[in-house]
């Protein structure tokens, strides 16, 4: 296989990993106002992702670094054209990470309230803007002959891109709430399942609208197949949640997000950044890629490094596989008080 094609799909796989893993982190963060009745509930929610959120977030670093090395022209055009949106994502991720670490440092409710708010905003903003960014990439943006973005920030806020943003926001929210039902016990587990059902109905409608729009406006045969499979997986996840099959529901939500990302990349291929004003200015896998030698070195590095990363991440999830409930938080408080 041509290395440029191979790395196009490796980049797709890395973004699938990021959106599936950090996606449920975003969802858990956004669920705080809905499932966190008191501080103990909110601590339960945060602790479901406490051991893994930073590991999940490293996927975006790996994806961005790989994009920079494999397709430097694509990286330069996207990160310069989408500068404000990506800066907002970065700031939101920083605020969220700081909040996880500092929320418990002081006992005052006001202190915790501020950091809870930053967790919510720091989860919702990336969930929305990643969808807006990728929808714009698929739709195409204004590029000049040098492949520089010549549009404005408001050009990116078109109806298709905004629908893409709402779609990722809702998908990540449901993904996170299903994860909460999988990782908790007691009343919060029951409420999470009910919330996933209510949010799932809206998500099915919005996601179906976005996938249909993508298929008919920008799609290919391959993207249409992926879109259909994503729709089936989403509905199946909804039904599994109704039955209380939490592990199956979570796996199907992960499949939904992965297939949705594949839909976007299949719609994009062989372009990486279509020019909406002049097709001749589009960036493709051919004119945006690094040299064959660079891609070859990257391929061997990925072949050696990726299995190690996946094994380590799998081991981490296995170690922290047990459910958590209010009793665990209250027990920890008692131990602290005693000591």
How would you describe the overall organization of this protein?
It is a single chain. The protein is mostly helical and 339 residues long. The chain contains 13 helices and 2 strands. A two-stranded antiparallel sheet has the order 1-2. α1 (3-30) runs antiparallel to α7 and α4 packs across α5.
Write the layout of secondary structure elements.
Layout: H1 3-30, H2 32-35, H3 39-49, H4 53-70, H5 72-81, H6 83-102, H7 109-139, H8 159-183, H9 187-218, H10 221-243, H11 246-268, E1 271-273, E2 283-284, H12 292-319, H13 326-338
Query: Structural class, judged by helices and strands?
Result: mainly alpha
What does the main sheet amount to? 2 strands, antiparallel
What is the C-alpha radius of gyration, as a whole number of Å? 21 Å
Global geometry: globular
Strand content: under 5%
Q: What is the number of strand segments?
A: 2
Please tally the helical runs, counting DSSP H or I stretches of 4 or more residues: 13
Order of helices and strands: HHHHHHHHHHHEEHH
- pLDDT averaged residue by residue: 92
Strand numbers in spatial order across the main sheet: 1-2
Task: Write a concise synopsis of the structure shown.
By secondary structure, this protein is mainly α.
Structural features:
single chain, 339 residues, mainly alpha, 13 helices, 2 strands, globular, disordered C terminus
């Amino acid at each position: 296989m041509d290395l440029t094609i191979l790395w196009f799909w490796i980049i797709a796989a890395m973004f699938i990993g990021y959106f599936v893993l950090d996606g449920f982190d975003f969802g858990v963060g956004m669920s705080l106002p809905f499932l966190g009745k008191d501080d103990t509930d909110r601590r339960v929610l945060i602790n479901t992702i406490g051991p893994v959120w930073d590991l999940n977030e490293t996927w975006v670093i790996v994806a961005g670094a790989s994009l920079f090395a494999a397709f430097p022209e694509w990286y330069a055009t996207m990160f310069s054209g989408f500068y404000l949106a990506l800066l907002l994502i970065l700031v939101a991720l920083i605020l969220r990470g700081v909040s996880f670490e500092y929320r418990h440092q002081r006992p005052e409710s006001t202190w915790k309230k501020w950091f809870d708010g930053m967790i919510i905003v720091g989860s919702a903003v990336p969930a929305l803007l990643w969808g807006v960014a990728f929808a714009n990439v698929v739709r195409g943006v204004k590029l000049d002959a040098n492949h520089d973005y010549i549009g404005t920030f408001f050009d990116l806020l078109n109806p298709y891109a905004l629908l893409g943003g709402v779609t990722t926001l809702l998908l990540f929210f449901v993904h996170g709430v299903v994860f909460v039902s999988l990782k908790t016990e007691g009343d919060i587990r029951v409420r999470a399942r009910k919330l996933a059902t209510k949010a799932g109905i809206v998500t099915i409608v919005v996601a179906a609208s976005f996938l249909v729009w993508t298929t008919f406006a920008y799609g290919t045969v391959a993207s249409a197949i992926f879109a259909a499979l994503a729709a089936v997986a989403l509905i199946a996840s909804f039904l599994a949640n109704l039955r209380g099959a939490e592990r199956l529901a979570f796996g199907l939500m992960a499949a939904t997000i992965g297939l949705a990302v594949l839909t976007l990349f299949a719609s994009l291929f062989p372009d990486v950044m279509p020019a909406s004003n002049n097709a001749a200015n589009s960036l493709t896998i051919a004119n945006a890629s690094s040299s064959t030698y660079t891609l070859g070195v990257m391929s061997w590095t990925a072949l050696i490094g990726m299995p190690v990363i996946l094994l380590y991440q799998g081991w981490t999830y296995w170690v922290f596989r047990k459910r958590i409930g209010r009793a665990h938080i209250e027990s920890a408080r008692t131990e602290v008080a005693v000591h």
